[in-house]
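Notebook entry, structure prediction.
Reason for the run: the old model in the group folder had no record of what sequence produced it. Starting over properly, with the input documented here first.
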Amino acid sequence: MYFVGNRAQLFNVCRGFAVCQPALRCQGRGCSSTVPRDNPMWASFGKSIMKVTRYCDTGKDAYDECIQARGQLEKIVRQSAGFSQMRVCMFGGVVSMGIVEAGADVDFVAVGDVEPTPPEAADIISRLSRELRRHGLRAHGIPKARVPVVKVDRVSNAVPGSPLHTLSQSCVFQFARPLSSVEQSCVESLLSSAAYCASRFEWNQPLRTSVAAQFRSTNDAVHAMTSLKRVSFGQLDETVEIPLRLPQDPAYGPELYRYPFDLCLQSTGLQHTHLFRLAFNQVPWARHLLIFLKKWSRSCGIVNSFEGLLPSYAMSLMVLHLLISQGLLEPVAWHDIAEPPCLPTHVTYEPLIAEEKVDAALLGFMTWKFFHYFSSEFDYEHQVVAPHAKNLSKRQVGWQTVGPLDVSVACKPPYYHFALKDPLGGPENIGRNLDSAAVSYVKAANQLAATFVIDECDDPAFLAHALTNEAPKPPRHQLNELEGVPAGLSDEETSSIKAHRLLQRAAFHRRKESLATVGEQAARHNERSKTAQDLTKAIVQWIRGSKQISLLPKSRM
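New structure, fully documented this time:
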């Protein structure tokens, strides 16, 4: 009997037998006692992990562009939308990791002096969504979500980190009425002033209802686009509105148009980000571990909040919880973090630790330990994943359903099958969406990964690639698109709801695939740029060395 396919696919075919036969697995290499912590295989596995994570960094140029995009978004929030007191800050993985990770979007938060109430946040998000669309961005506001957010898809065709097109510095301004020749001169004088720094103009003759202007930089272009809402002609004592202001070609727009991003108003996420950044910097290889596990979690499917599984943010909590439980990190001191208005808007680029400075054996072992811990050691029934406490139970946070035999404590809902708590998140549970079937899926995925690591330890390069691209997946029941639909609806209404949910799911997966594609392109561009720079330096050094040799006296040659 022959099997056509690779080893990861063969493992998926045989996973039912592997899950149902734990005793047989432990008699072979599947038992952790057969591969001790000091085994050389862990060092090889750790080096293979770092080779994978190295290609997840899109590079310094892409990170610096992301910082520019933050400033441009802040101009839209302050000048165009009118929230002049708000600061736009970067948060999420781009801050805690110090890199722009391939396949991930960028998170921004608008922070004011006072946190808005839920109704106020919904109104602000709706207004920001309209303003972003006005400027040519593909923005979709979700004001009624638990955390109101604006989701924006990338518009530009350019890869983050690549050179900007000349059209990225050009904007189009359309006026409410045709302008006279005198008014045209006034507009050109205004745009070419030091406030806007425009240099070239192209009018739609002979009506003169719009003008395309080229600016000194993309920041100047966005500044003019967001602040110049009307033009006043002093001598003529008249004001003309400018209802349309957007890049000349959004497909080649400024840096903001290159990135898919989310914009919200919940400032506690900003505090968590800086808290996690401090924690991950205490363990040199922790960022390698988190990036690798995020790729694995997407490959095996446990990170998929749309279908009732974990959000990507949960992986950060789980990694920190593992490091704390193994004594490699102290619980994070959340009391020391500053208030959101006092935190910086962005941080500098911080490349991943070089391979020679990382304990590769410990990295490889702790990767397997993560799979083993969340499949066999963690008590989903009673424990809470929390980076600020080593041993936190559901009973302590009020998430424990008391059984009928315990009469000393009254039953206190809610009950969560998987509990993940933020240090500053209040009573919210990050894993509140997971039911018992979803938790079983998470446990089974970790169990399969732990077994897969032991079974394929002889080929660490294949092992790291398979876990991040074709990870073993446990079987899962088909989701019911009609869950939660009230009874008594007609067939047409039921079909409409089902179609709507299917379209939402398809859109969710398309966005994820788009993020992955753009991230891979940016990572490849960064790697090619590094190779070209290294080659150029080597050629220059060789030329300098050849010149020095040719200048030596003949007696010394």
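Summary: Residues 1-5, 13-33, 402-412 have pLDDT under 50 and may be disordered.
The old model has been moved to the deprecated folder.
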